[in-house]
């Protein structure tokens, strides 16, 4: 949820020593957006036989402070490109991006300090314990020992009792949480999770969701990429859908779902058809099988009686009728069905 409360302090995670305010945590007064992206473009240069690729096209987005934001899109949509630009790993072609009020181009150090990225791959040295790994990470980032929050972070991610276990003995879910813990070492106000539950079973997914919610409740703004619609629907306050490098939807999850007053009606008729009968063309009808018509309609229009009349005008007898409520998956499919522009 967007919030206007003060930035989360290091104390929110709990410190091993005296808590101190992290510089990256101090927002510019009045800052409402944790991440602001304006007219961002990225074209990957051609290499060998691979032509140039426009991976991001005029992308503008705002991630409100305190939000749990989902960046949703099919494979190849441009999600990783966007987060890699924010993380300073990919250079944008044009446009602007700010993290916690810091421009990634003009203030790269501050911008990078404000964002923690949890990559998809589990790259954890199996011979260290979680406590050692976090201490090492803190050392790498120059977090002074007094400001380290190793045990607090492990506790927040449900790993306190595994602090001294070798990482190789941790379960897959624990390793993923340890990756999140590593990204939290600097207590960045913005945490990016790249496909946090890709390939994770349902039970582990629920656990991870719980941890992500808990971090968000402590004040961390979370931006996650996912291609699981259920994940976005369950977890995120706001969702942007990206497809072929363009943002095609950007709204609160509840508004996106409220748009979905539509239903699908499947009508099985008594004979095979070669095309949609003329009496039905005024409705959004397609032939889903030779003897089956799929009608997509808005609940508010209540057209079912008219559709049945039109079927009778066409001399068709209805054998079976099935309706299905649409969900985020339907809007996603509807929006992402659009063909790609020529690159
Ligand atoms: P997503 O994370 O949504 O799967 P990506 O950002 O990885 O999408 O990719 C967006 C598009 O850019 C894809 O067509 C992909 O093939 C292309 N792409 C990604 N990285 C590179 C690269 N380093 N060089 C060339 N093309 C790339």
Task: Spell out the blueprint of helices and strands.
Layout: E1 33-44, E2 53-64, E3 68-72, H1 79-86, E4 94-99, E5 102-103, H2 108-113, E6 115-118, H3 130-140, H4 150-156, H5 172-184, E7 190-194, H6 202-217, E8 221-226, H7 229-235, E9 238-243, E10 246-252, H8 253-258, E11 262-269, E12 285-289, E13 292-298, H9 304-313, E14 318-325, H10 328-336
Parallel strand pairs: 3-8, 3-9, 6-7, 7-8
Antiparallel strand pairs: 1-2, 1-4, 4-5, 9-10, 11-13, 11-14, 12-13
Helix pairs in contact: 5-6
Summarize the structure.
With 343 residues, this protein is α/β, with parallel strands linked by helices. The protein has helices at 79-86, 108-113, 130-140, 150-156, 172-184, 202-217, 229-235, 253-258, 304-313, 328-336, and strands at 33-44, 53-64, 68-72, 94-99, 102-103, 115-118, 190-194, 221-226, 238-243, 246-252, 262-269, 285-289, 292-298, 318-325.
Descriptive overview:
- This protein has 2 domains: 10-257, 3-Layer(aba) Sandwich (Rossmann fold); 263-325, 2-Layer Sandwich (Alpha-Beta Plaits).
- Helices cover 27% and strands 27% of the residues.
- The chain is an alpha/beta fold and 343 residues long.
- α5 (172-184) packs parallel to α6 (202-217).
- The model is unreliable at 1-11 and 17-24 (pLDDT under 50).
- The protein has helices at residues 79-86, 108-113, 130-140, 150-156, 172-184, 202-217, 229-235, 253-258, 304-313, 328-336, and strands spanning 33-44, 53-64, 68-72, 94-99, 102-103, 115-118, 190-194, 221-226, 238-243, 246-252, 262-269, 285-289, 292-298, 318-325.
- It has 10 helices and 14 strands.
- The strands form 3 sheets. A 6-stranded mixed beta sheet has the order 6-7-8-3-9-10, with helices on both faces.
- β7, α6 (202-217) and β8 form a beta-alpha-beta unit.
- The structure holds adenosine-5'-diphosphate.
- Adenosine-5'-diphosphate binds at residues 44, 53, 55, 73, 75-81.
């Amino acid at each position: 949820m967007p919030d206007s409360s003060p930035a989360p302090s290091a104390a929110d995670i709990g410190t091993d020593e005296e808590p101190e305010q992290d510089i990256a945590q101090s927002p510019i007064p009045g800052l409402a957006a944790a991440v602001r992206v304006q007219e961002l473009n990225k074209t990957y240069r051609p290499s060998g036989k691979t032509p140039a690729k426009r991976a991001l096209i005029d992308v503008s987005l705002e991630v409100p402070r305190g939000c749990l934001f989902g960046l949703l899109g099919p494979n190849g949509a441009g999600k990783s490109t966007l987060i890699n630009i924010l993380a300073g790993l990919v250079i944008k072609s044009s446009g602007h991006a700010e993290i916690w009020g810091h421009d990634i181009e003009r203030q790269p150090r501050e911008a990078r300090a404000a964002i923690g990225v949890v990559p998809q791959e589990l790259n954890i040295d199996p011979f260290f314990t979680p406590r050692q790994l976090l201490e090492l990470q803190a050392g790498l980032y120059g977090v002074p020992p007094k400001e380290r929050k190793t045990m607090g972070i492990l506790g927040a991610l449900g790993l306190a009792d595994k602090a001294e276990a070798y990482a190789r003995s941790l379960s897959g879910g624990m390793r993923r949480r340890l990756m999140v813990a590593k990204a939290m070492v600097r207590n960045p106000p913005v945490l990016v999770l790249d496909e946090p539950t890709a390939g994770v079973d349902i039970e582990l997914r629920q656990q991870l969701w719980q941890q992500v919610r808990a971090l968000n409740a402590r004040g961390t703004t979370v931006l996650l990429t996912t291609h699981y619609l259920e994940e976005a629907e369950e977890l995120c306050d706001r969702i942007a859908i990206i497809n072929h490098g363009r943002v095609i939807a950007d709204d609160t999850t509840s508004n996106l779902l409220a748009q979905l007053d539509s239903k699908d009606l499947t009508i099985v008729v008594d004979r095979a058809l070669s095309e949609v009968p003329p009496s039905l063309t005024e409705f959004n009808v397609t032939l889903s099988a030779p003897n089956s018509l799929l009608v997509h309609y808005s609940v508010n229009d209540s057209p079912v009686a008219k559709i049945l009349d039109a079927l009778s005008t066409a001399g068709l007898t209805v054998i079976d009728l099935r309706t299905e409520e649409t969900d985020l998956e339907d809007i996603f499919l509807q929006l992402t069905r659009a063909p790609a522009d020529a690159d």
